[in-house]
Amino acid sequence: MAQKVLITGGTGLIGKRLTTLLLKKGYEVAYLTRKKSNIPFVKVYEWDVKNNHIEAGALENTAYLIHLAGAGVADQKWTEERKKAIFSSRTDSIELISRELKKRNISLKSFVSASGSSYYGEDTGDIQHTEMSPSGKDFLSEVTIEWEKSADSVKQLGVRTVKLRTGIVLSNDGGAVPKMAQPAKFGFGAPLGSGKQWLSWIHIDDLCRLYIECMEKDSWEGAYNAVAFPPATNEDFTKQICKALDKPQWLPNVPSFALRLVFGEMANVVLGSNYVINQRIKDETDFKYEFPDLLKALKDVLSK
C-alpha cells in the first residue's frame, strides 16, 4: 500500500513539482487547501485555519507531512494587513495541524517544513551564514523565526522534524527567474540596486529532491540551509540569465531609490544581500546537487 504524504500549500510553485516527483516514486499525495478542487492523482481536503477546521480524513493514515503553506512574500506591497497575512499563514496553519495530530493521537514518520534564508536577516551584506549563525531582527527574520517555532510544535509530539531555510528558487513556472528574465529576453537585462548584493539560490528540482530526502531519511533533523553553493551577486545573476538566453546586457543598474519608490518596504526582498552556506548538507549528508552551477541551472530552467 502506498504511503500517504500530506502537503499544505501543494498547489504552489514548489508543491506542484514536488507532487510530480512523489507520485513518480509511488507515494499517495494529498493536499490541504482552502478551496476544494479536482487535481489529477491527488486527494484534496479542505481546511479553514481561521475557524480551526480540517476536513475529516485529511490526517488519517498520513505517514509524512510537508508544510509549504504561506502567503507570498513578494506578491503584494507590505501593508500592515499584508504583513499579518504573511505571518499568520505560516504559523497558525501548522499550529492547527499540531493540535489536531495531538487530539487524534496520530503519529507521523517525519515532518518537513519550509523556512527561509531570511532567518538571518533581510540584508546581511557580505556576512557568511551557516545554520549556526544567529537570526536577524527585521520583519522577515521575525516571520521565519516564528515559522520555525510553529514547526517545532510538531517536533514536540515526538515527530522527527526538518526545516529547510530556502533561498531563491529557480523555476520557469514562477518566482524570481521569469520576472528577471522577461526584460533580458528583449535585451533590457539590468542589475538591481548596486548589483553587489548576494543571492543564495537553488534549482527547484534540487529543492524538491531535498524535501524527499529529508522526509525519507532518519538522519536528517533540525534546520538546513537549502541553497546551492556558491551564491551569486545580483549583477552576476543578471549576467548569467542574459548568457543563458544568449542576450546582451547593456542597460545600467536600476537604482535602489526607484525600486523603493515602486515597491516600498518590499524592495528589501530584491535589494537585500544574503550569503548563505549549506554547511550541514555538505558536512553531514551525502546529498548530491544536480544543478550546483548557476549557469547550468538557469539554462535548464529557461529552456522549459
Automatic annotation (TrEMBL):
InterPro entries attached to this UniProt entry: DUF1731, Epimerase_deHydtase, NAD(P)-bd_dom_sf, SDR39U1
Domain named DUF1731: residues: 254-301
Any Pfam family matching the protein: Epimerase
Domain NAD-dependent epimerase/dehydratase span(s) in chain numbering: 5-217
NCBIfam families reported for this sequence: yfcH
Family per record: Belongs to the NAD(P)-dependent epimerase/dehydratase family. SDR39U1 subfamily.
The protein's name in its UniProt record: TIGR01777 family protein
Organism from which the protein derives: Dyadobacter frigoris
